[in-house]
Each structure stands twice: as C-alpha cells, then as structure tokens.
Design a protein that fits this description.
This protein is mostly helical. The protein has two domains: about 150 residues; about 110 residues, no CATH class. The protein contains ten helices and four strands.
C-alpha cells in the first residue's frame, strides 16, 4: 500500500464486531501504515461504543467468574479469558485515540506510537485467545466485565485526560498485577501461559512509557505542570481509588515515578 488514511482505517476496525477479525484487521492496517509512502491521519468521529461480538455477554464485575488459579484449568481459563477481554478493549482504545484526536496538532510520531500499541494489543488478544483454545475454551465462552469502556467515554473530549487515565492509571495497574499472575501460572506449571504474560508485561511497560511521554509533551505545549495536572485529571476523571501495592520498579522502567501517584493514595 502506498497511501494510508489512518482515521478511516481506525473507524473500520472499531466497527468490526468479530474479535478475531478486529484484531487481525488491526495488525494488517498497522503493517500498511508502517510501509505507506504517503500518510494522512485525518479525523473521524468514532462510535460511542465499538462493535463487539455477541459473546461474551457483558456483566457487572460481581457476576464475572473468579480468576483463582487452582489445580484444574478452570481458574486459569477464567484468568486468561478476563485478560483477553481487557486486551480486546485495549485494541479499541488505541484505535479510538487515533481517530478521535486526529484533528489536534500532534506530530506524526504520536500516531506511529499508537499504531504500534494498537498492533501489540491485537497480538496480545490473539495470543490469549489461541491459548484459551488450546486449554479447551475460547474467547466468548465466559461472561466478561462490562465496565472497561467507561474510561473511554469519560475522556472522549479530552486527550490529556485520556492519557492520564488509560495508559497512566489502567495500563500502569496492569504492571502492578501481572508479575503475581506470572508467578502463579508458573506454580501451576502452565509455562506457555506464563510466557505469554511475560511478553505482554514487557510490551505494556512500553505502553505506559508512551502514554507518559505524550502526556508530558502535551503538558509542555500547554505550559502545565505534569504531576499536578495528572493528579487533578485523575481525581476528576477516574472513578475509584489508586490501589497499592504499586510495582514501582516496572513503573520506573516506563519513566513513571511515584511522585505522580503516591500522593493520591488514601491511607487505609
Ligand atoms: Fe496489551
Ligand atoms: Fe497496553
């Protein structure tokens, strides 16, 4: 492909209902963007909610099966299913940010970064859904959490708030909880699942780093202090507390120091 219009392609992905097709189309578009000689980002209004398959049924969190890793495969399947669902949301979130904020004066490197993230989220989803099939299940077999798109809706009109909440709260939270999941999968002797989560963990450090980098870039453009601005936006746009313990080491690898988040923790 010699020409790419990124926003139009992003909308096509958001409007694809099949999870696997959505993920695969995203990977194709990312490859086309990398290879395109003429690139336009454009701007398009993404759907309020992206198209999704009929299953999994979306339920309130308390009705979603618990993800306890025990001796049988059920707990691992529930864990991998929940993670696949998070990754599918992450695919849509990455394409949404590209289309929705394409009208703002952002350097092309911003879009390169988010296309790479979108591509990696597709890879994560596909790895997890293939693993579910090997374990005798599939994505869609269990109910899934309904609340994940809420952060996107809350920050639909504010790129700075989107960056503060999605990569720097939600994806950073992923860095906090993943090492323990990897340990438990290894203890259950599920080495392949542990290997997949290790790859996801490494790439998610990069996603937090990209979010933090562009958050700070935008703050500099607007002459705002990044730490104060982040704390203000998180308290306005993120429902719920920031939960310690934090993986300070993983967060530091993403260039995300505790002076951002430690002051927002309410003492128990
Ligand atoms: Fe991911
Ligand atoms: Fe991510």
């Amino acid at each position: 492909m010699t020409e790419a219009n990124l926003s139009a392609a992003a909308i096509k992905i958001l409007e694809t209902a099949s999870a696997e097709q959505k993920a695969r189309l995203g990977r194709d578009i990312a490859a086309q963007w990398r290879g395109a000689t003429r690139r336009t980002v454009g701007h398009a209004r993404p759907p309020n909610r992206p198209a999704r398959p009929d299953t999994p049924r979306l339920r309130p969190p308390r009705e979603v099966p618990r993800r306890k890793i025990g001796t049988g495969p059920e707990g691992r399947i529930a864990l991998l299913h929940a993670l696949a669902h998070i990754e599918l949301n992450a695919v849509d979130l990455a394409w949404d940010i590209i289309a929705r904020f394409g009208d703002q004066a952002l350097p092309e490197a911003f879009f390169d970064d988010w296309v790479r993230i979108a591509d990696e989220e597709s890879k994560h989803f596909l790895l997890l859904s293939e693993r579910l099939e090997v374990l005798g299940s599939h994505y869609g077999a269990l109910p899934a959490h309904d609340g994940l798109w809420q952060a996107s809706e809350a920050t639909a009109d504010n790129l700075l708030a989107r960056l503060a909440v999605v990569p720097m709260v939600l994806e950073a939270r992923g860095l906090d909880v993943t090492p323990d999941m990897i340990r438990k999968l290894k203890a259950a002797d599920d080495r392949r699942s542990a290997e997949i989560l290790e790859l996801i963990y490494q790439e998610e450090i990069g996603h937090v780093a990209v979010g933090r980098k562009w958050f700070e870039w935008l703050c500099a453009q607007k002459d705002l202090k990044p730490v104060d601005t982040w704390q203000d936006l998180v308290s306005r746009y993120f429902r719920g507390p920031l939960k310690p313990p934090f993986n300070e080491e993983g967060r530091a690898l993403a260039g995300f120091p505790s002076c951002y988040y430690a002051p927002l923790v309410t003492p128990a």
